[in-house]
Amino acid sequence: MNNPKHFYVDYTDKTAVNPKLTEKYKSIIEKYISLENKDILDIGCGTGRLAIHLSKFVNHWYGIDPDPESIKLAKENIKNLNIDDRVTFKVGKFADIPFDQEFDIAISSNSLHFEENKEDAFENVYNSLKSGGYFIIFEPTPTPHGWFSDKLNEDSPDFNSTFFEKKVEALNKSYAAIKSQDLFEIVYEVMPKTNKNFQGNQYHAILRKVK
User: Fold this and answer.
1) Which of 66, 151, 60 is nearest to 116 (CA)?
2) pLDDT digits (tens, 9 = 90+) for 149-196
3) By C-alpha distance, which of 92, 93, 18 is closest to 49?
4) Which of the listed residues 20, 41, 81, 180 has the most CB atoms within 10 Å of its CB?
5) Taking the domains of the chain in order of start, what are their residue ranges?
6) How far apart are CA 83 and CA 57, in angstroms?
């Protein structure tokens, strides 16, 4: 079975970038926050899809991902883009965030539900943000229908309902953690209806550090 942690990434496609999707992310973010000259922490950066399209607006983009192959490809993807001076990629996950109030914005794209300890994940992000900083979350919707389950079926030949139920449970824990934590206030939140369009089939939230 393919590693489900990275079912969004086709390693044969070295760009693994969806310009329409990243533009959608940018439009959601910039309704509330300007990316201009900001220091960004990209948690679960994958092969660098967000950095490739959005780093030109920022001061520095720091991407982490637990998969070494993704980080290797992310570094390859930016080689000829003249953004090396403001983009850094490292192997890591929520538990590996060592920063102390260094970032204006932290972005988690389809990563939070993989974390066993959601409370620690939020605390690590909180500690990495400057006063009044923002935590932006994009997560799949917890549904047995639509793009999320289609992609899992496509990439996992022995995919079964038990596996999917575990993914749904993890997603629901993510949403519960977002609601229950007291480190951030919710500025913006959308739970879309289920559909077959990946670009709409996501949970979006923008949180602001409260202290």
Assistant:
1) 66
2) 555 555 554 444 554 456 556 656 666 666 667 888 989 887 655 444
3) 18
4) 41
5) 20-193+202-209
6) 11
Give the full edge-to-edge strand order of the sheet including 103-109. 87-91, 60-65, 39-43, 103-109, 129-140, 202-209, 184-190
Query: Rounded to whole angstroms, what are the CA distances from 163 to 19, 155, 174?
Result: 30, 13, 17
CB 97 within 8 A of CB 41: yes
Report the CATH number of the 20-193+202-209 domain.
Answer: 3.40.50.150
Backbone angles phi, psi at 169, to 5 degrees: -60, -40
Position 11: which residue type?
Y
And the tokens for 160? 């079964």
Distance in angstroms (rounded) separating the CA atoms of residues 72 and 49: 13
Structure token digits, residue 15: 């760009």
pTM of the model: 0.77
